[in-house]
Amino acid sequence: MNSISVFLIYLLLFFFHQPKTTVNMNTKIVIAHRGASGYLPEHTMEAKSMAHAMNADYIEQDLVLSKDDIPIVIHDIYLDDVTDVATKFPERKRKDNRFYVIDFTFDELKTLQVTERFNPKTGKQVYKNRFPKAKGNFKLHSFQEEIELIQGLNKSTGKNIGIYPEIKEPSFHKNEGKNLTEIVLKILTDFGYKTKNDNCILQCFDAKELERIRKKLQSELFLVQLIESEEALQQLKYFATYADGIGPWYKQVLDTKIDDTWQFTSLVADAHKLGLKVHPFTFRADSLDEFSTFEEMLKTLLIDGNVDGCFTDFPDLAVDFLDK
Ligand code: CA
Protein backbone atom coordinates (compact mmCIF):
# COMPACT_ATOMS: atom_id res chain seq x y z
CA MET A 1 0.00 0.00 0.00
CA ASN A 2 1.43 3.37 -0.94
CA SER A 3 1.52 6.28 1.43
CA ILE A 4 -1.38 8.08 -0.26
CA SER A 5 -3.81 5.19 0.30
CA VAL A 6 -2.62 4.85 3.89
CA PHE A 7 -3.35 8.52 4.30
CA LEU A 8 -6.83 8.14 2.76
CA ILE A 9 -7.69 5.24 5.05
CA TYR A 10 -6.49 7.33 7.95
CA LEU A 11 -8.73 10.19 6.84
CA LEU A 12 -11.74 7.88 6.51
CA LEU A 13 -11.15 6.39 9.95
CA PHE A 14 -10.85 9.85 11.36
CA PHE A 15 -14.20 10.97 9.96
CA PHE A 16 -16.07 7.79 10.87
CA HIS A 17 -14.67 7.89 14.36
CA GLN A 18 -16.17 11.23 15.29
CA PRO A 19 -18.68 10.57 18.05
CA LYS A 20 -22.12 11.55 16.79
CA THR A 21 -22.89 13.06 20.18
CA THR A 22 -20.90 16.20 19.38
CA VAL A 23 -23.53 17.06 16.75
CA ASN A 24 -26.03 17.71 19.51
CA MET A 25 -23.97 20.56 20.90
CA ASN A 26 -24.08 22.41 17.60
CA THR A 27 -27.82 22.24 17.02
CA LYS A 28 -30.72 23.22 19.21
CA ILE A 29 -31.52 20.60 21.80
CA VAL A 30 -34.70 19.45 23.50
CA ILE A 31 -34.30 18.51 27.16
CA ALA A 32 -37.12 16.38 28.59
CA HIS A 33 -37.74 18.26 31.86
CA ARG A 34 -38.23 15.57 34.58
CA GLY A 35 -39.01 13.24 31.63
CA ALA A 36 -42.18 13.63 29.55
CA SER A 37 -43.67 15.19 32.68
CA GLY A 38 -46.57 16.83 30.83
CA TYR A 39 -48.03 13.35 30.32
CA LEU A 40 -46.87 11.13 33.20
CA PRO A 41 -45.88 11.82 36.84
CA GLU A 42 -42.49 13.61 36.82
CA HIS A 43 -39.24 11.68 37.25
CA THR A 44 -40.87 8.24 36.99
CA MET A 45 -39.29 5.57 34.81
CA GLU A 46 -42.47 5.68 32.72
CA ALA A 47 -42.01 9.43 32.06
CA LYS A 48 -38.36 8.80 31.10
CA SER A 49 -39.24 5.95 28.71
CA MET A 50 -41.86 8.14 27.06
CA ALA A 51 -39.36 10.99 26.66
CA HIS A 52 -36.93 8.54 25.05
CA ALA A 53 -39.61 7.38 22.62
CA MET A 54 -40.36 11.03 21.80
CA ASN A 55 -36.74 11.56 20.72
CA ALA A 56 -35.79 14.23 23.22
CA ASP A 57 -32.05 14.92 22.87
CA TYR A 58 -31.51 14.80 26.63
CA ILE A 59 -33.49 13.45 29.58
CA GLU A 60 -33.19 15.30 32.90
CA GLN A 61 -32.47 13.82 36.34
CA ASP A 62 -32.71 15.85 39.56
CA LEU A 63 -30.63 14.16 42.26
CA VAL A 64 -31.07 13.98 46.04
CA LEU A 65 -29.35 11.49 48.39
CA SER A 66 -31.15 8.85 50.45
CA LYS A 67 -30.17 8.14 54.07
CA ASP A 68 -27.91 5.34 52.78
CA ASP A 69 -26.20 7.58 50.20
CA ILE A 70 -28.01 6.48 47.04
CA PRO A 71 -28.82 9.31 44.59
CA ILE A 72 -32.59 9.32 44.07
CA VAL A 73 -34.17 10.92 40.99
CA ILE A 74 -36.59 13.47 42.47
CA HIS A 75 -37.08 17.21 42.04
CA ASP A 76 -36.95 18.33 45.67
CA ILE A 77 -35.32 17.36 48.95
CA TYR A 78 -38.94 16.73 50.09
CA LEU A 79 -41.18 13.72 49.45
CA ASP A 80 -44.62 14.96 50.44
CA ASP A 81 -45.71 16.65 47.20
CA VAL A 82 -45.09 13.71 44.87
CA THR A 83 -45.60 10.61 47.07
CA ASP A 84 -47.89 9.07 49.70
CA VAL A 85 -45.19 9.38 52.41
CA ALA A 86 -47.54 11.32 54.74
CA THR A 87 -49.92 8.36 54.98
CA LYS A 88 -47.25 5.58 54.94
CA PHE A 89 -44.80 7.14 57.43
CA PRO A 90 -46.78 9.85 59.28
CA GLU A 91 -44.37 9.85 62.25
CA ARG A 92 -41.31 10.58 60.12
CA LYS A 93 -41.90 14.27 59.38
CA ARG A 94 -39.53 16.92 60.68
CA LYS A 95 -40.48 19.94 62.81
CA ASP A 96 -41.35 21.92 59.68
CA ASN A 97 -44.00 19.25 58.88
CA ARG A 98 -42.11 18.11 55.81
CA PHE A 99 -40.77 14.69 54.88
CA TYR A 100 -37.16 14.58 53.64
CA VAL A 101 -35.71 12.12 51.14
CA ILE A 102 -32.50 12.09 53.21
CA ASP A 103 -34.34 10.65 56.27
CA PHE A 104 -35.31 7.46 54.41
CA THR A 105 -33.29 4.47 53.19
CA PHE A 106 -33.49 3.41 49.58
CA ASP A 107 -35.56 0.35 50.57
CA GLU A 108 -38.04 2.55 52.45
CA LEU A 109 -38.27 4.98 49.53
CA LYS A 110 -39.08 2.07 47.22
CA THR A 111 -42.25 1.34 49.23
CA LEU A 112 -43.73 4.77 48.43
CA GLN A 113 -46.30 5.37 45.75
CA VAL A 114 -45.36 8.23 43.39
CA THR A 115 -48.11 10.45 42.02
CA GLU A 116 -48.68 13.51 39.88
CA ARG A 117 -47.36 16.60 41.75
CA PHE A 118 -49.81 18.13 44.24
CA ASN A 119 -49.94 20.76 46.96
CA PRO A 120 -49.52 18.87 50.28
CA LYS A 121 -51.60 21.50 52.14
CA THR A 122 -54.65 21.45 49.88
CA GLY A 123 -54.20 18.05 48.25
CA LYS A 124 -54.89 19.64 44.83
CA GLN A 125 -52.76 18.56 41.86
CA VAL A 126 -50.67 21.39 40.41
CA TYR A 127 -51.46 20.94 36.69
CA LYS A 128 -55.10 19.92 36.59
CA ASN A 129 -55.17 18.52 33.03
CA ARG A 130 -52.23 16.21 33.54
CA PHE A 131 -52.12 12.57 34.67
CA PRO A 132 -54.69 12.09 37.46
CA LYS A 133 -53.36 12.25 41.02
CA ALA A 134 -52.99 8.99 43.00
CA LYS A 135 -53.70 6.82 39.95
CA GLY A 136 -51.43 4.15 38.52
CA ASN A 137 -48.49 2.39 40.13
CA PHE A 138 -45.36 4.54 40.06
CA LYS A 139 -42.19 4.25 42.18
CA LEU A 140 -39.07 6.22 43.02
CA HIS A 141 -35.79 4.98 41.56
CA SER A 142 -32.05 5.58 41.80
CA PHE A 143 -29.81 7.47 39.37
CA GLN A 144 -28.07 4.20 38.45
CA GLU A 145 -31.40 2.57 37.58
CA GLU A 146 -32.30 5.46 35.32
CA ILE A 147 -28.95 5.46 33.52
CA GLU A 148 -29.39 1.71 32.95
CA LEU A 149 -32.85 2.41 31.47
CA ILE A 150 -31.60 5.15 29.11
CA GLN A 151 -28.46 3.28 28.06
CA GLY A 152 -30.56 0.12 27.60
CA LEU A 153 -33.06 1.97 25.42
CA ASN A 154 -30.21 3.55 23.46
CA LYS A 155 -28.92 0.05 22.71
CA SER A 156 -32.28 -1.47 21.78
CA THR A 157 -33.42 1.49 19.64
CA GLY A 158 -30.07 2.51 18.16
CA LYS A 159 -30.58 6.06 19.42
CA ASN A 160 -28.04 8.07 21.37
CA ILE A 161 -30.06 10.08 23.87
CA GLY A 162 -28.15 11.90 26.56
CA ILE A 163 -28.59 12.52 30.26
CA TYR A 164 -28.81 15.94 31.94
CA PRO A 165 -28.35 15.41 35.71
CA GLU A 166 -28.69 18.18 38.31
CA ILE A 167 -26.89 18.27 41.66
CA LYS A 168 -29.66 19.45 44.02
CA GLU A 169 -28.91 21.71 46.99
CA PRO A 170 -25.25 20.85 47.67
CA SER A 171 -25.13 22.97 50.85
CA PHE A 172 -28.19 21.20 52.31
CA HIS A 173 -26.46 17.86 51.68
CA LYS A 174 -23.25 19.18 53.23
CA ASN A 175 -25.12 20.29 56.37
CA GLU A 176 -26.51 16.77 56.60
CA GLY A 177 -22.94 15.43 56.49
CA LYS A 178 -23.21 14.15 52.93
CA ASN A 179 -21.38 14.79 49.70
CA LEU A 180 -23.78 14.37 46.79
CA THR A 181 -21.41 15.71 44.12
CA GLU A 182 -18.60 13.18 44.62
CA ILE A 183 -21.10 10.30 44.64
CA VAL A 184 -22.74 11.50 41.41
CA LEU A 185 -19.41 12.07 39.63
CA LYS A 186 -18.27 8.55 40.53
CA ILE A 187 -21.47 7.04 39.08
CA LEU A 188 -21.10 9.12 35.90
CA THR A 189 -17.52 7.92 35.45
CA ASP A 190 -18.54 4.30 36.08
CA PHE A 191 -21.20 4.55 33.35
CA GLY A 192 -18.81 6.12 30.83
CA TYR A 193 -19.75 9.78 31.16
CA LYS A 194 -16.36 11.47 31.46
CA THR A 195 -15.92 14.20 28.84
CA LYS A 196 -17.92 16.67 26.74
CA ASN A 197 -18.26 13.99 24.03
CA ASP A 198 -20.08 11.55 26.32
CA ASN A 199 -23.59 12.96 25.91
CA CYS A 200 -24.00 14.14 29.46
CA ILE A 201 -24.62 17.70 30.66
CA LEU A 202 -24.20 18.35 34.38
CA GLN A 203 -26.18 21.25 35.88
CA CYS A 204 -26.35 23.05 39.23
CA PHE A 205 -27.77 26.29 40.66
CA ASP A 206 -24.92 26.59 43.17
CA ALA A 207 -22.12 28.46 41.34
CA LYS A 208 -19.43 27.71 43.95
CA GLU A 209 -20.19 24.00 43.68
CA LEU A 210 -20.16 23.95 39.88
CA GLU A 211 -16.88 25.90 39.90
CA ARG A 212 -15.48 23.32 42.37
CA ILE A 213 -16.60 20.50 40.04
CA ARG A 214 -14.53 22.00 37.22
CA LYS A 215 -11.53 23.45 39.03
CA LYS A 216 -10.98 21.26 42.10
CA LEU A 217 -12.57 17.96 41.06
CA GLN A 218 -11.25 18.46 37.50
CA SER A 219 -14.38 17.27 35.74
CA GLU A 220 -14.22 17.45 31.94
CA LEU A 221 -17.99 17.17 31.53
CA PHE A 222 -20.17 19.78 29.80
CA LEU A 223 -21.29 22.01 32.70
CA VAL A 224 -24.36 24.25 32.81
CA GLN A 225 -24.79 26.98 35.41
CA LEU A 226 -28.45 27.37 36.31
CA ILE A 227 -29.57 30.93 37.01
CA GLU A 228 -32.31 31.84 39.42
CA SER A 229 -31.75 35.41 40.56
CA GLU A 230 -31.36 38.67 38.70
CA GLU A 231 -27.98 39.25 40.42
CA ALA A 232 -26.62 36.06 38.88
CA LEU A 233 -27.20 37.59 35.46
CA GLN A 234 -24.31 39.99 36.18
CA GLN A 235 -21.90 37.10 36.69
CA LEU A 236 -21.69 35.68 33.16
CA LYS A 237 -17.94 36.33 32.89
CA TYR A 238 -17.31 34.41 36.10
CA PHE A 239 -19.57 31.55 34.94
CA ALA A 240 -17.59 31.36 31.70
CA THR A 241 -14.41 30.57 33.67
CA TYR A 242 -15.75 27.08 34.44
CA ALA A 243 -19.10 26.48 32.69
CA ASP A 244 -20.01 25.68 29.08
CA GLY A 245 -23.54 26.98 29.25
CA ILE A 246 -26.21 28.65 31.34
CA GLY A 247 -29.76 27.65 32.23
CA PRO A 248 -31.78 30.83 32.87
CA TRP A 249 -35.50 31.28 33.48
CA TYR A 250 -36.97 31.94 30.02
CA LYS A 251 -38.34 35.30 31.23
CA GLN A 252 -34.75 36.48 31.67
CA VAL A 253 -34.33 36.15 27.89
CA LEU A 254 -37.55 38.02 27.05
CA ASP A 255 -37.93 41.76 27.25
CA THR A 256 -41.19 43.47 26.28
CA LYS A 257 -43.59 43.11 23.39
CA ILE A 258 -43.64 46.13 21.08
CA ASP A 259 -46.19 46.25 18.22
CA ASP A 260 -46.79 42.51 18.53
CA THR A 261 -43.06 41.74 18.28
CA TRP A 262 -41.08 40.36 21.19
CA GLN A 263 -37.90 42.21 22.17
CA PHE A 264 -35.09 40.39 23.95
CA THR A 265 -32.66 41.17 26.74
CA SER A 266 -28.94 41.03 25.91
CA LEU A 267 -28.56 37.75 27.85
CA VAL A 268 -28.34 35.36 24.90
CA ALA A 269 -25.97 37.59 22.89
CA ASP A 270 -23.80 38.24 25.96
CA ALA A 271 -23.62 34.52 26.76
CA HIS A 272 -22.81 33.60 23.16
CA LYS A 273 -19.98 36.16 23.10
CA LEU A 274 -18.47 34.32 26.06
CA GLY A 275 -18.93 30.95 24.33
CA LEU A 276 -21.77 29.89 26.62
CA LYS A 277 -24.77 27.90 25.35
CA VAL A 278 -28.19 28.99 26.65
CA HIS A 279 -30.79 26.39 27.75
CA PRO A 280 -33.75 28.17 29.40
CA PHE A 281 -36.43 26.51 31.56
CA THR A 282 -39.33 25.62 31.56
CA PHE A 283 -41.47 25.34 28.41
CA ARG A 284 -44.98 24.16 29.39
CA ALA A 285 -47.80 23.85 26.88
CA ASP A 286 -50.35 24.03 29.72
CA SER A 287 -48.83 27.11 31.41
CA LEU A 288 -48.25 29.67 28.67
CA ASP A 289 -48.47 32.92 30.59
CA GLU A 290 -47.48 35.71 28.14
CA PHE A 291 -47.78 33.54 25.01
CA SER A 292 -51.04 32.69 23.26
CA THR A 293 -49.86 29.31 21.92
CA PHE A 294 -47.02 26.88 22.67
CA GLU A 295 -45.90 27.24 19.06
CA GLU A 296 -45.49 30.98 19.66
CA MET A 297 -43.39 30.29 22.74
CA LEU A 298 -41.16 27.84 20.85
CA LYS A 299 -40.71 30.16 17.87
CA THR A 300 -40.14 33.26 19.98
CA LEU A 301 -37.44 31.76 22.18
CA LEU A 302 -35.79 29.11 20.01
CA ILE A 303 -35.80 30.98 16.70
CA ASP A 304 -36.19 34.73 17.32
CA GLY A 305 -34.46 34.66 20.72
CA ASN A 306 -31.76 32.28 19.40
CA VAL A 307 -31.46 30.13 22.52
CA ASP A 308 -29.64 26.79 22.09
CA GLY A 309 -32.16 24.46 23.65
CA CYS A 310 -35.07 24.25 26.04
CA PHE A 311 -36.20 22.37 29.11
CA THR A 312 -39.74 21.24 28.38
CA ASP A 313 -42.45 19.07 29.97
CA PHE A 314 -43.69 18.39 26.41
CA PRO A 315 -40.64 17.08 24.50
CA ASP A 316 -42.74 15.72 21.61
CA LEU A 317 -44.03 19.21 20.75
CA ALA A 318 -40.57 20.80 20.86
CA VAL A 319 -39.03 17.96 18.79
CA ASP A 320 -41.82 18.31 16.18
CA PHE A 321 -41.32 22.06 16.07
CA LEU A 322 -37.54 21.81 15.52
CA ASP A 323 -38.01 19.08 12.88
CA LYS A 324 -40.03 21.56 10.82
CA1 CA B 1 -33.93 20.37 37.44
Keywords:
single chain, 324 residues, alpha/beta, TIM Barrel, 13 helices, 11 strands, 34% helix, globular, binds calcium ion
Q: What would you note in describing this structure?
A:
It is a single chain. The protein has 324 residues and is an alpha/beta fold. The protein has a single domain, classed as Alpha-Beta Barrel (TIM Barrel), CATH 3.20.20.190. The chain contains 13 helices and 11 strands. Strands 1, 2, 3, 4 and 11 form a 5-stranded mixed β-sheet that branches. Strands 5-6-7-10 form a 4-stranded parallel β-sheet, with helices on one face. Helix 3 runs parallel beside helix 6. The longest helix is centred in the middle third of the chain and has 15 residues. The chain is globular and about 55 Å long. About 4% of the residues have low confidence. Bound molecules: calcium ion (CA). Calcium ion binds next to strand 2.
